[in-house]
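Consider this record:
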Amino acid sequence: MKESKVMFRTIRAFWNDQRGVAMILVAIMLPVIIGFALLAIDMSRANGLHNDLQKGVDALALATAAELDGRSDSINRAELAKTTLLTNKTKFSTSGDHTLALADVTVKYLTGIPADDSIGLNAAGVDTNGHDWSSTDPKAVTFSLVTVNPSADADGAGAFATIFPASFVGSNDTFDIRPQAVAGFVQSICETVPIFMCNPFETADPLTSKTIQQAFASGDTYSREFRILKVDSNPGPGNFGLIDNNLSSLRDAIAMGTSGTCYNRDALTTKTGVTLGQVNTGLNTRFDLYSGSLNKQNKNWAYRPASNVRKGQKTGCSKYDPVTDGTALPLPPGSNYVDSKGMSDQIATQGFWTSYWSINHGTTYPNVPAATNPTGTTTAPASRYDVYKYEIAHGLVGDKSLAPTKETGTPSCYKGDNPTPDPDRRLLNMAIVDCIANTDKINGHVQIKPDGYASVFINTPVQKQDNTKDPEDPSAGEKPISLEIVDVDGGFANNTLVDKAFRNEAQLYR
């Protein structure tokens, strides 16, 4: 009996003894603790890999989208940017420290993206509603979609191998991380007047039609006189129109040379209901002529004239009234001007300049070099812009024309600080629109995509048909704006379209 009581007390003491219980609990919970630690490490690794890959595809999307400027070679340049970027040595945190390569990503070029971000896009550019946004048309695409591909093996860019033995719980020990990025191209022009000019080289036949860049590169624009009047219901070469940007004064925007805002390069909206007197009055300040209410701006630097305003006029500060006795001459008009084309022939011989030079400078014409000829030929007859620049560069602006006019090119009506030759106040940045192809849009006042932008030189002030009327009087007939095209945007530029005029931006959308 006594022995049984001792045994019972021993068993009960053992039963009640809690020493070492913690070790048992630790032994039981240790796998769970280790499992959670491994999960935390895996989540951190996966998040790091995702961030690394996301930065990579973001950079690739931005680099390729930056080339999608609507030119015929935009996709080729985007592909070159893709190849160049993916030859770098950036490493990503996968097993094997894999370098992001061309085989790891799919790049698609899109004409647009869904307006709602909740609508997804697959790697082919098809959204969840089944709409295919992808295109191979270099002039139509404006977005770049970059997606990391599924990994064919453990060394793929997005392949992730877990430390946690997920297979023990019926899951996979490896999976793909596939970030995606969408970037778009936006180009704005900030230093421009709110005017567009119809492309004078556009025809109704696509086989004979030229872009303004093609015409410029081949030398077809050089030394031609272009004349533009207000767009009517059948716009085409020889017409111009106005751009809607909610300006309080179109006249002042043209006089100052900037619309005060940046236009989306590919989305212009036309404007009507403005008298052309505002256009003429604004342009003529550049020739030292201050009409109407602008006569109070003849001391304002923003309304200054060019440094060379020779225009074939004896006196007068309010309107263009050229002399008719041949004792002073403006830059001469072109030969064989054709209304339906809106342009003249090119200057054919050096003799074109004989009268202008002898009357205004009293000497023999010195065969001014063709300095701005885009073909590189300097021996061709000089353009009007070349002669104008030559007069400035060689100190000839102050030369007096024949008596009794004795006109010089030095401004006399402007009373502010002396105008400078740079930036040139007789150069304007202007949109060029294929008006034949966009007739309905122009008349309908909806957004249109311009063919490009040109830097144009204003040859002479704008004159009224009835020169007794005030330039802002809408009842007076209009004469066209006479100009030369001296530069265009794109790869064949003479760089007179100032760098600050264009602002190229590639931005991430997704």
